[in-house]
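Quiz preparation item.
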């Protein structure tokens, strides 16, 4: 949804190719955007899945003024890259939530939608296209790898994308997402310690323990189930807190 007091910049967006920021992107403008608040520039990249049947349907929705949603980029399963909103502008992709104590993630981020229903692996051409796009965005805005997050990271319990099938470790190994710890977790798994570590990592949305655990697991160990375990602490690091 657009923020109150921030109207879309134009009901009929420009169709000039000069609006494209990313190499190889097809300019397909959406009317659903506005200016970033408080002169903010992006320091986050939020990755989503479309949860729709095909890229064409997703593209139509992201460019439908009645839908009031958008993203800066959409990547099809075949690797086709569309740009709908200039990176300098505020797309409407993140919604309610927060990261590291900051809200209005739309003003602080670039949004990337991946054509995926959420119940199947991400196609190799699509991942390769994402890996070509991310370095451009990170370099252009001087964004650190740890600024690449999932929708579920900043909106736990409300959103679950890019979901358990997304290969975060693959991005981490290329320096395209923040790395994880790999130390042994504590045997006396304490919720207070887990919450403190998760908040320090960025998971600061006001949610209950179970919802927080689900969000952290979606990012780091989506195969994890059941009660809080030592393995849930490991990717968050800080061994000194329990040794």
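Solution:
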């Amino acid at each position: 949804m657009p923020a109150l007091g921030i109207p879309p910049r134009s009901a009929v967006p420009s169709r000039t190719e000069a609006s494209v920021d990313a190499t190889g992107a097809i300019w397909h403008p959406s009317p659903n955007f506005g200016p970033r608040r408080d002169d903010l520039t992006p320091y986050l990249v939020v990755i989503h899945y479309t949860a729709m049947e095909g890229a064409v349907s997703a593209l139509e929705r992201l460019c439908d003024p009645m839908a009031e949603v958008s993203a800066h980029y959409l990547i099809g399963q075949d690797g086709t890259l569309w740009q709908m909103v200039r990176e300098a502008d505020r797309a409407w992709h993140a919604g309610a939530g927060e990261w590291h104590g900051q809200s209005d993630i739309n003003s602080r981020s670039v949004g990337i939608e991946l054509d995926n229903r959420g119940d199947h692996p991400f196609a190799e051409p699509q991942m390769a296209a994402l890996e070509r796009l991310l370095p451009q965005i990170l370099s252009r805005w001087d964004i650190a790898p740890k600024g690449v997050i999932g929708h579920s990271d900043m909106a736990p319990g409300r959103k679950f994308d890019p979901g358990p099938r997304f290969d975060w470790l693959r991005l981490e190994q290329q320096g395209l997402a923040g790395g994880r710890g790999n130390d042994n977790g504590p045997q006396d798994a304490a919720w207070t310690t887990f919450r403190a570590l998760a908040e320090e990592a960025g998971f600061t949305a006001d949610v209950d323990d179970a919802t927080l655990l689900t969000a952290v697991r979606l990012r780091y160990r989506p195969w994890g189930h059941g009660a809080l375990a030592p393995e849930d602490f490991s990717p968050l690091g800080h061994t000194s807190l329990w040794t």
